[in-house]
Amino acid sequence: GVGDQAPEFSIEALDGITLQMPNGEPTLLILFSHTCPDCKNMMTDLQRYISANGTEREIMAISRGGEVAEVEAFREEHNFTFKIAADQGAEIYYKYATMYVPRCYIIDSNGTIRHITYEYSTGDIEKLMAKLNNID
C-alpha cells in the first residue's frame, strides 16, 4: 500500500530494455490487461498526454498475462510509445495486487509507493501526471 516499498522485479520490455524496480527514479507503474477496455482508454489518454506535454519521468506499463505477440499487437494498434512489457505469468501483477486493472502506482526515487489508483475515469491521467511530476 501507500508508504510501502514497491516490490522488486525485473522484466524485459517489448523493445528489449530491462524494466526494474527499484530503479532510483520517480516512476509511474501501470499494471494492465491488453483485453481491458478501461486499460486501453487510460493508456490512450496517457499517450495523448505524453504527445502534448512530453514527460521527464519514468513510465512503464506491464501486462497482467498475455502472450508477448498479443501485447505487442496491442501496443502497435494504439501507437503507444512508452515502455511496455508482457508479464505472461502475471508474476509482477501478483506482487502488487490480487484484482482490478488498470492499476497505477506512483513510486518515488527511494522506491516508496506514494499513490495508488485502480480502474480508470477520463481525466485521471492529468491528475496522475501532476502527482508524478511533483515527487522526487
Structure description:
The chain is of the alpha/beta class and 136 residues long. Helix content is 32%, strand content 27%. It is built from four helices and seven strands, in the order E-E-E-H-E-H-E-H-E-E-H. The strands form two sheets. It has a five-stranded mixed beta sheet. Strands 1-2 form a two-stranded antiparallel sheet. Strand 3 (27-32), helix 1 and strand 4 (58-64) form a beta-alpha-beta unit. The longest helix is centred in the first third of the chain and has 17 residues, at 37-53. The protein starts with 8 loop residues before the first strand and ends with a helix.
What are the SSEs and their pairings?
Blueprint: E1 9-12, E2 18-21, E3 27-32, H1 37-53, E4 58-64, H2 68-78, E5 83-87, H3 91-96, E6 103-107, E7 113-118, H4 124-133
Parallel strand pairs: 3-4, 4-5
Antiparallel strand pairs: 1-2, 3-6, 6-7
Summarize this entry quickly.
It is built from 4 helices and 7 strands.
Spatial strand order of the main sheet: 5-4-3-6-7
Strand proportion, as a percent range, falls in 25-35%
Question: What is the count of β-strands?
Answer: 7
Q: What is the general shape? A: globular
| Straight-line N-to-C gap | 18 Å
* Average pLDDT over all residues: 96
